[in-house]
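Document type: protein sequence-to-structure record

Subject area: structural biology

Format: plain text, a pair of labelled lines:
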Amino acid sequence: MTSIDRLDAELLTALSEDPRAGTSELAARLGVARNTVQARYQRLVESGVLTGFSARVDLERLGLPVTAFLHLQLTQGTLGEVTGALGRLSRVLEVCTTTGTSDVMVRVACRSHAELQSLIQEVLTIRGVVRSTTEIALTTPVEYRLGPLLATLTSDRGRGRSGDQRR
């Protein structure tokens, strides 16, 4: 586990909110030197905490207004085969292994309920899938975010060598 301080958390939050922000902009926003941002960034990458950047895409504007979560029960010993097959389906956005009544949760995006139904039927043909339950997302009132979690995680830590204890 890599330990981060409040400055690291603020840098990660800023990058998650605006992945295109440059070093100078981040330095100004965080109130530190460019070299500090560059060093912190490099350390976060090398430690594996920061694994990449991605664009946020409005799926509805792309003609994919139906987001759903498929909860799948699997035959024991077929997890790798099933997740491999799911990874080859273009409408699958994410696959998570889970505990509870399902073994896998699959986030999908579709153009219509009919397309979702077709996708579910396709998923049910994958060897090892025993049963599925589907939940359709109506809205996303809280988007994926990191800031509050990182702030809580580092609330008892300083901001590094600068001694700056602001915020």
Q: What stands out?
A: Residues 162-167 have pLDDT under 50 and may be disordered. The helical segments are 6-17, 23-30, 34-46, 79-87, 113-124, 147-153. The first strand starts at residue 66 and ends at 74. The two ends are 25 Å apart (CA to CA).
